[in-house]
Amino acid sequence: MEDVFIEQLVKKKSSSSDRMPVYGVSLVAAVVFFAGLFFHLLLCIPGIALGVLAYFLYKNTDIEYEYCLVNSQLDIDKIIAKSRRKHLVTLELKDAEMIAPKESDRIRHLANPNVKDFSTHSERATFVIVIADEKQQMTRVYFDPDNNMMNAIYKMMPSKVFDS
User: Fold this and answer.
1) Strands 63-70 and 73-80, sheet pairing
2) At what angle do helices 16-38 and 44-59 cross, to 10 degrees?
3) Model pTM?
4) CA-derived radius of gyration, the chain
5) Confidence band of 37 (pLDDT split at 50, 70, 90)
């Protein structure tokens, strides 16, 4: 069997709940800054500081996920603002119970599993890896593999990959 190495980078779609703190801090920064211009110039300093905070909050909403499949091991990393990387999880796909789409009937019967969402939140289909935890608790891991990665996973373990 030959070695498999596939890397995929996906950008997470920002939701309104991700952007709301940025808008709130930006609004407060603008109000404080302009109040400082009209009333007392010392108020401009906290306004500028809040503006800088809003900028860093905005940069932290730029999130990408990197999926790296090496043989049967899937590593998922989070890249924040194209400058910082955080390793999230390493999954051994041989230990997965099944890999199926999010809306699959095979997945629905699982009661209250742990959910880890590393998907893009886009309109395209999201796949799920269901893994048995060491405490016998099921965990769902959401991610968005492309066709190339799904074909490689299917070739490795066709009995665990389901279309519906």
Assistant:
1) antiparallel
2) 160
3) 0.78
4) 21
5) confident
